[in-house]
Amino acid sequence: MSLSPPPNSSHAETIVSLKRCIAVLEGLNADLCTPAERTSNSQALEGRVIRRLVCLTDRIEELVAEFDRRVTLGTPGGFDGDALESSNMKENQQYRSYNKLVTWCPSVRTFMQSSAECSEVAAMCNKLNRSADAARGDDTTSLKFAVVSWLMQTSPTPNPVIPHRDKSCRGFHHDTMGKLLCPVDYDWGDPAIREAIRNYHPDYRVMSYSWPSYLYRDGRYDPKNPTNGLFKGELLVKAVKHIFTSPSSAENTVVFVPTHNFSKRQRTAGERRTRCDVAGLLRMRSIQPRAIAYTAVQLRFALSSAGSWRILDDDFDQEQFYHNIVDYFEVCPSREATKEVDSLLLWWNQQVFGRRNVSDYRPQKTERLSVAMTSIAR
């Protein structure tokens, strides 16, 4: 089989032919990989999913141990982990995270169902943990610089100028970042309150029991309607797109316009995709609540003055903050709350994916459409 481009071909045809040759060679190279190498590569990729879509800090072995604990408590008639709710909140969180783990990392389920030795399971967990933490570190570094660029493009320009590398001037030390981090229960516009927050006054502690302003659209919080605008902050949307689609997509705002104003081949800015974005690599075709929670934590860290990653930032517990957001989406107390979350996720999918993946994030109920109704009537 010849992999050379045909003679006397045009420049464009030559490029297409060369790309085809590269694809063939990549396929041949993949076939040469041993099963162990393919498994290793798969686990390395799946590990990068964990912090982003599964859990913020838990180790894989902790999630597996919680699953094993519930299996041990199960009845002989069958295992139903959800029916074995624990009085320990941490255990319930870990079991829900385990379910996300086997969804996004199918190799874990396969490994657990095999006859692998304990040492092999430990090695797998170790590799996944390393890959997970590496991905979180990459996102932390990337967002650290991106946030400054976004804020310095706003009007009026933040004063003093925010350094890209030195974080000691960030957080509540800087008026612009302090306003974004300020709990919505406090009025950052009041100089006395600003001073109290900066001086760690006990009546104005910054904890994970209050939503930071950057989670709200335009930073506006209505105590009479606290869900209005929640998780629609512009900076949060930018950060999600920066991590899960591409840094360039974070600069674009998705605007839905009538399709008759454009030719069929044109796409909105939000629909232009990079060659291989993170969402595509992770097979994430619709926005996930844990992706929003993860990004909210990463964004808070980027805005803060903390120089290194930490779970406790003074009185603020990042892990509790993460679970507060996850619970808002995943543990709805009523049918009305579920509908509200569905609408919010639809809004998020439109912001992040535009018209891409519509059939995934809002599939039509085809059983109610004309083809199905015709079949029923016959």
Provide an overview of this structure:
With 378 residues, this protein is mainly alpha-helical. It has 15 helices and two strands. The chain has a two-stranded antiparallel ribbon. α9 crosses α11 (289-303). The longest helix has 35 residues, at 118-152. The radius of gyration is 24 Å and the shape is globular. The model is unreliable at 33-38 and 255-275 (pLDDT under 50).
Quick summary of this structure?
The chain has 378 residues and is mostly helical. The chain contains 15 helices and two strands.
List descriptors.
two-stranded antiparallel ribbon; mainly alpha; 378 residues
Structural class: mainly alpha
Oligomeric state of the chains present here: single chain
- Report the helical percentage: 40-55%
Mean of pLDDT: 84
Taking the alpha carbons of the first and last residues, their distance comes to 53 Å
Write the layout of secondary structure elements.
Blueprint lengths: L10 H22 L2 H20 L5 H14 L15 H16 L1 H8 L4 H35 L22 H7 L9 H8 L35 H11 L33 H4 L7 H15 L8 E2 L2 E2 H13 L4 H19 L4 H4 L8 H8 L1
Antiparallel strand pairs: 1-2
Helix pairs in contact: 2-4, 2-6, 2-11, 3-4, 4-5, 6-9, 6-11, 9-11, 11-12
